Every structure is written in structure tokens, then in C-alpha cells.
Amino acid sequence: MRTQEVKVGVVDGWLMAGVLTFVLAGIVWLAIQQRVVAVIVLSLIWSFVLVGFFTLQPNMAAVLVLFGKYKGTVSTSGWCWANPLLKKIKVSLRSRNLNGEKIKVNDKRGNPIEIALVVVWRVADTARAVFDVDDYTSFVKVQSEAALRHLASAYPYDTFESDDEQSLRGNMEEISAALKKELDERVARAGVDIEEARLSHLAYAPEIAGAMLQRQQADAVVAARSRIVEGAIGMVEMALARLEQGRAVQLDDERRAAMVSNLLVVLCGDHAVQPVVNAGTLYT
Questions:
Q1: Which residue has the higher pLDDT, 96 or 235?
Q2: Domain limits, CATH 3.30.479.30, in the chain
Q3: Torsion angle of alpha carbons 56, 62, 66, 70, nearest 10°?
């Protein structure tokens, strides 16, 4: 059963300090009157009440527990006083960083990769953080690693074949959003809110880094060549259309094919072409 946080108020510390000062003055007066029993009783009560003082800094909270039963959470900063019998467990509400260590996992295609994450998180529900998990800090760390392993196995490291498929390397924003969503679901039982989650390290494992680099280079060359050929065909089609539209030159099928071949060689070649001036006619 999940514990639900309950906000409670406490007595202002300065107000209670004024009351104790007044009581202390009464103890002194009774001591002067030599009323020993009254002095002893009031002194014990005064000392007992004094234990109830505690302070809270901004973005800090105190979980109040009385004989093992949760009584509420105080989040008011300053000098406060509560029942001295209450156990006060202080919990920080400030944002924290989790810089995860590099772990080795297999991506969607089975390639071993090294991956790490950085998470910004904070406690949103103090009751769950204290009572529903054993150690919420360790819980966040373990669940973050588990979420990272699951995410890495659901996406490939990189892809050039399909623009529709998301990859760890090519879709960082989408991957970060998916990681944050999964982390939110995993740590909700601990009363923790994930403010940001991102990959801090991503690389192929050393044993396949060289081979995968060659594969990346080959895929990049193929992709670049495909783009060049696609652009070159478009330019050739435009050139032929402009020539036919202006009727500047009439080309038969053979000369049209030669022109297309020459233009594709020029546009798709790796090196600069050497111009050749035709001193004869178009057919010589």
C-alpha cells in the first residue's frame, strides 16, 4: 500500500521560545520562594518541551513520526516547534544530479555499445520517499540503470538505411523524452519526480569500434552518393527541359543520351573534369 503525503502545520519557534522564557521566569520565582517540588516538576517539563525545537532550510521538509505512525510532513522553512515525542526525519526537496557510470549493453541489432546517462531529479512526495522504499537515493540509481539498459536494447545505435527508424545517435531529443517517461514510471512509487534525463555518453564498445567505424563510413558514402545521383538526375532533367522549351538545340535520341551521360559523369565524379573543346560540328 502506497503512503500519501499529508501536509501539517507546526508552532512557530519564536512563539514557543517566548512561552518557555515566561515559564523559565516562573521557575526562577518559585526557586526564590523555595518551592522545591514545583521547581523540579516545571524544570523537567521545560527541558522536555525544549527538545521539540527544530529548523528547516528552504526546500527542506520534515517527516513527522509518532511511535511508528506517520503524522504528516512539515515543509515550512524557519525555526519551528512540534511535539517532542515526534521523530523528525528531514528530507531534501532540492534538485539532485545523478551522473551514471558507463555500462555495456547490446543495442536493438545486437551490437555491444557503451552508454551512460545523467538525471536531474527531486523528491516530490516525502511520505513515499521515506516509507515506500528502503533507500530512495539508491532506488533512483538502480532504476535509472535498469531504464537505460531497456532503452538501449529498444533502439539501434545508428541507421542510414531508413529515415523512419529512430536511433540512439540520430534522435537524441526523442530518446531523452522516452528515457524521462520510463524513469518517471519506474520511480513514481518512491515519490520522486524526474526533471530531466539525457544520455551523457554513447559509443560502440572497443572490441567492435573499428569495424563499426568502417561500416559507418561505408554507409555514409552510399548515402552521400545516393543524394548526389538524385540531385544530378534532377539537374539533367531540368537542363533537357530548358533546351527543349527554348528550342535552342534540337537533339536526337542518340545525342540526348550522350548529353545525359556526359552531364552525369561531370556531376557525379569525384574529381574536377577537364573541358574539351569540340572544334568540329555537333556530329564530328
A1: 96
A2: 96-204
A3: 160
C-beta of residue 149 within 8 angstroms of C-beta of residue 183: no
Distance CA(49)–CA(83), nearest Å, equals 8
Q: What pLDDT, on a 0 to 100 scale, did the predictor assign at position 125?
A: 93
What is d(CA 98, CA 40) in angstroms, rounded to the nearest whole number?
53
Nearest-5° angle of CA 148, CA 153, CA 156? 115
Query: What integer is the mean pLDDT of 156-175?
Result: 79
pLDDT score, position 281? 58
Whole-number Å distance between alpha carbons of 137 and 121: 10
How many whole angstroms separate alpha carbon 263 and alpha carbon 232?
8
Of how many residues is the chain composed? Answer: 284
Q: Which residue has the cell 514510471?
A: 185
CA atoms within 13 A on the CB side of 49: 17
Residue 247 has pLDDT above 70, yes or no: no
Sequence-distant (6+) residues with CB within 8 A of 88 are 54, 62, 63, 64, 74, 82
Show the 3-state SS of 14-27. Answer: HHHHHHHHHHHHHH
Find, among 52, 31, 55, the residue nearest to 41 by Cα: 31
**Per the confidence metrics, is the pTM higher than 0.85?**
no
Give residue for cell 569540340. Answer: 278
User: Which residue's entry shows cell 573534369?
Assistant: 273
Per residue in 73-127, pLDDT tens? 998 889 999 999 999 999 999 999 999 899 999 988 888 889 999 999 999 999 9
In the CATH hierarchy, which fold is given to the domain comprising 96-204? Tetrahydropterin Synthase; Chain A (3.30.479)
Taking the CA atoms of residue 258, residue 262, residue 268 and residue 274 in that order, the dihedral angle to the nearest 10 degrees is 170
Mean pLDDT (the chain) is 83
191: left (phi over 0), alpha (psi -120 to 50) or beta: left
